[in-house]
Amino acid sequence: LGMPLVPVGSLMVAQFETRVSDFREFVTDSGIVPMPSSGFPQALNHPVTSVTASEAVAFCNWLTLREQQAGLIQSNLYYRLPTDLEWSLMVGEEPAAGATPEERGRNGGDAFPWGSEWPPPAQSGNYADLASSSTFGQYVIEGYNDGFSTTAPVGSFVPGPNGLADLGGNVWEWVSDSYHGGGSALGVVRGGGWDSHDQNVLRTSYRNPVPTGSRGGSYGFRFVLVPVGE
Predict the structure, then answer these.
(1) By three-state DSSP, how is residue 77 classified?
(2) How many C-beta atoms surround the C-beta of residue 118 within 10 A?
(3) d(Cα 91, Cα 85) in Å, to the nearest integer?
(4) I need a labelling partner for 54 at 20 to 30 A (CA). Which of 79, 108, 117, 174 fits?
(5) Are 191 and 168 spatial neighbours (Cβ–Cβ below 8 Å)?
(6) Peptide bond into 36 cis (omega under 30)
(7) Around Cβ 41, how many Cβ atoms within 10 Å?
(8) Helix (H, G, I), strand (E, B), or coil: what is residue 7?
């Protein structure tokens, strides 16, 4: 797919959120799911949206098989969604106590993906900003303008400390854990999206509990490459 992978700990992490072009290739090649509709115009280099957790998993399984068969990755490697703890590592969040995303969210810190200041400095990410005011009215980050009213091309903003783009904003990213643990029907998306403005929601420690079958217009994902068994 031409997706750069960045080493973070023992992971190889997609530098960008999964793009419209990536997901369209999956839809065309596999026929497993239809192409989701964002409800607004998107270019091929924008992050795919309105993807459920199971569709994100199906994409990872398809990509694994395709690249193994093409000899691009070894048979002992596979693609999957990051876990909640891995996503925290990717964004540079200090480890929080707790056995589930729900517990870790309560015990997490106050930092944002860009640091500690509020409002975000320029080029911090794609959020509900002054460019979105016609859509969201007063529910925007006052004093911040990223120039995009919905999604932006991936990598349009300053990357995080690990060189990963859009860990804050653009689209919320699915992780593999359930919110309460134990395989509950509530999944977790993290990082905020183009429609996020609330200060608490944009903290790196925030876990957004949503049903795994949700097709939010700001829900997307990125993938990681790991050895089988990890």
Answers:
(1) strand
(2) 14
(3) 10
(4) 108
(5) yes
(6) no
(7) 8
(8) strand
Measure the CA angle with vertex 144, ends 107 and 129; round to 5°. 85
Q: What is the pLDDT of residue 90?
A: 97
Q: What is the pLDDT of residues 84-133, one digit of tens each?
A: 999 999 999 988 999 999 999 999 999 999 999 999 999 999 999 988 87
153-162 pLDDT, tens per residue? 999 999 998 9
Tell me if 60 sits within 8 A of 81, measured CB to CB.
Answer: yes
Q: What percent of the chain has pLDDT over 90?
A: 91
pLDDT attached to residue 134: 67
Q: What is the overall mean pLDDT for the chain?
A: 95
d(CA 184, CA 187): 7
The pair of three-digit structure tokens given for residue 212, joined into one six-digit string: 């795994």
Q: Please report where in the chains the tokens 């090649």 appear, as a residue.
A: 29
Run of H or E including 186: strand 186-190
pLDDT at 24: 98
Residues shown for the chain = 230
| CA–CA separation, 217 and 220 (whole Å) | 8
The strand pairing partners of 225, in sequence order, are 12, 79
Measured between alpha carbons, how far is 175 from 80 in angstroms, rounded to an integer? 9
Residue 184 above 90 pLDDT?
Answer: no
Q: Which two tokens stand for residue 38?
A: 């964002």
